[in-house]
Amino acid sequence: MNNRDTIPNSMMQLLHGSGVDRRQFLKSAAIVGFGATAGAVGWPGSSRAVAPRRGGTFRVGIHDANTTDNVDPATPFGIFMTQLNCAFRGYLVEINPDNSISPDLAEKWEASSDALTWTFPIRKSVVFHSGKTLTARDVAASLQYHLGEGNKSAAATQLADVESVRADGDAIVVVCKRPFADLPYFLTDKQLVIGPSDESGKVDWTGLDGTGPYRITRHEPGVTTELVRHANYHKPDRAWFDAVQLIAMNDGNARIGAIRSGAVDAISEFDLRFAPQLAASPGILIDETASGAHACLAMDCSVAPFNNSDVRLALKHAVNRNEMIDKVLRGHGTLGSDNPIGPITPFHVNISPVEYDPEKSRSLLKKAGFEGLKVTLSAADIAFVGAVDTALLFKETARAAGVEVEVVREADDAYWSNVWMKRPFFVSQWGGRPTPDAMFSLVYAGDAAWNETRWRNSRFDTLLNQAKGELDGQRRTALYGEMQRICSEDGGAIIPFFRNRLSARRSNVAHAGSVSGVWELDGGRSFERWWFSE
């Protein structure tokens, strides 16, 4: 499969000028989306659509919840908080079920011909749960919260190329340090929610006010959050439920039991071993979508032995990727090549995965002076269902390469605060991002706040800087292609597979027939897009 085949024809026309020039692309009110259509596939009856109706309480069992969770969008947060933010807060730009993007709190966007200055007129009909009317000042203050030298926000890297954000009447103007063609996509990032500003131009993020489809009535971190419909929600054809309850269920068996018993109406994901049984269960439907979500065995490249490129490559050769897909994903995924840009993402290049070759691994370890290598790998299923099994399977396949892997099953609670980026070798998962620039800037740039492998490659960083400001589509394709190959060959991330997203819902929960694979549960928008059919 060549790179052109991975990008929708409409996007290729926009990028390469087939009747649409670059200026027209940048000034589009709703840019055609990157990525493949992510429908509900593979499960009989899973995409049945019926007319929406209002009413009922939508109860959802969600994993990756922590008692340390907080509502400050500058802090890293997991799946539960990602879903909650989508339920009670708003974003400038929305990711649609087909993974395209469209305006949300913004009415549209326009860019200067050099993509340095972007203007986002703000909707005039938006009201916060508190009754305050949304203004451009609120939006500007919310984005400014993540800007500035030394800013510790998890989104600071995403907005590193933004020079300033200011309110200009009923619009905000974003001025970039260099051409930033992907800015609307970056504004869909889960951290970039919009909150109400005060007279000083600051946002108090400890409050629970938002513009989202539902208003919080009870919030107990790591346990549950209850919400009711926002009567003044700016999308009259959305938010069909009267109320929503998000229930923290980190235990996969508990989620399956809850959906089977009818204690919840949907669950975020489940152990794939039980997919056939769930699919055969009366009253349960499964949604499956391709995604950019990928498992990662992250090696800290700043410490031995992972600071040796031959050791990193040896460990990559010690992974049986096909076996992992068969045994961990039960076939619900695609092969990874230690490159975070998946097949549904634009500019993806088809890199052959590193083959499972124990002898090659042994040879590389001998060359590096690490024969008989022993490593400790931390894992917890809160990272993703099957994370521990992934680690254990790696332990078995690495043994044939002469590598002894001690798998430490860490506690689910506080895994992200106590293990992630704290241990030298651990299992993580990334939900993927809609563009290569977003993924690379967030995790793989040498100075990225979430550079979990602490990998630095000067050539990669140079290419990333060039690609950010490159307006020629063919040149960007070449730049991103080289970057992906550098990741695969030299990087500290072992990415064995990309996971399809599977979630389950009761058969009386309906949607329009396709769901986004960017995040779980229709990209976090199930609360406003889905409804009870009866």
Overall description:
With 534 residues, this protein is of the alpha+beta class. The chain has 17 helices and 22 strands. The protein has helices at residues 9-16, 22-26, 79-88, 136-144, 183-186, 252-261, 275-280, 309-317, 321-327, 358-368, 387-399, 415-418, 436-444, 458-468, 473-490, 520-523, 526-529, and strands at 57-62, 93-95, 101-103, 110-111, 117-121, 162-168, 171-176, 214-220, 224-229, 243-248, 266-267, 284-289, 294-299, 333-335, 374-379, 404-409, 425-430, 493-494, 497-499, 501-506, 509-510, 531-532. The strands form 7 sheets. Strands 8-9-10-1-11-20-12 form a 7-stranded mixed β-sheet, sandwiched between helices. Strands 4-5-7-6 form a 4-stranded antiparallel β-sheet, with helices on one face. Strand 4 (110-111) and strand 5 (117-121) form a beta hairpin. The radius of gyration is 22 Å and the shape is globular. It starts with 8 loop residues before the first helix and ends with a strand. Residues 1-42 have low confidence and may be disordered.
Features:
534 residues; alpha+beta; 19% strand; 17 helices; four-stranded antiparallel sheet
User: Low-confidence spans: pLDDT under 50, at least 5 residues?
Assistant: 1-42
What structural category do the secondary elements indicate?
A: alpha+beta
Give the number of helices.
17
* Largest sheet composition: 7 strands, mixed
Rg (C-alpha, Å): 22 Å
Beta-strand percent range: 15-25%
Strand order of the largest sheet: 8-9-10-1-11-20-12
Q: Give the fraction of residues assigned to helices.
A: 25-40%
How far is it from the N-terminal to the C-terminal residue, by CA?
Answer: 44 Å
What's the pLDDT, averaged over the residues? 89
